[in-house]
Amino acid sequence: MHTAAIDPPGVEWLRVSSKYVTVRLVEWAIRNVILVAVVSLPLLFVQLGWWTWPPLWFAVALPAFFVVLAVWRLALIPRQVRAIGYAERHDDLLIRRGIFFQRTMVVPYGRMQYVDVAVGPVERILGLCTVKLHTASAGTMAHLPGLPAAEGARLREQLSARGEARLAGL
Asked: Between the N and C ends of the chain, which has fewer C-beta atoms within 10 Å?
């Protein structure tokens, strides 16, 4: 995994499953089919003669723009998934993500209130899950998608045990 300038030195990053690309592709397909269908309605209405505005060039350009944008986002999905990583350290969990706008989040074990493992329908088919970390701060919103289900269960137990130990002052 490529090291970003904001990454702490000497951290061994673990990657999420490459199957997570499939989850993202399904989400992408659903989102973009709906979006392109909606922005294509003016073109349909102009072709049927129901609308005289927008002009035909605009009615064609609008869905074309969204198709180009969707294809560009499609090309980024595999790289975005490869950019997601995590590392367990002695006192905290590090989570990183992002290509253009990189982010490295540090979640101290002592701040964790509970750890949640969620599974959507596509994730379930692929044997993946998402680990969500809930802390005292509402702004944390730490989540780690695309983990194999067994790793998600192990991480949930490990993080919960470490969090309880830190809260107890051990």
From this structure: C
Q: Would you give the DSSP letter of residue 139?
A: T
- Give the predicted TM-score (pTM) of the model: 0.87
pLDDT 10s digits, 25-34: 999 999 999 9
Domain ranges of the chain: 20-80, 86-167
Q: Which CATH number fits domain 86-167: 2.30.29, 1.10.10, 1.10.760, 1.50.10?
A: 2.30.29
Instruction: Using DSSP bridges, classify how beta strands 85-88 and 92-97 pair: parallel, antiparallel or unpaired.
Output: antiparallel
Lookup result for tokens 């702004």? 139
d(CA 159, CA 165): 10
Burial of 9 by CB count in 10 Å (0-12 exposed, 13-18 middle, 19+ buried)?
Answer: exposed
CA angle 34, 38, 39 (to 5 degrees): 120
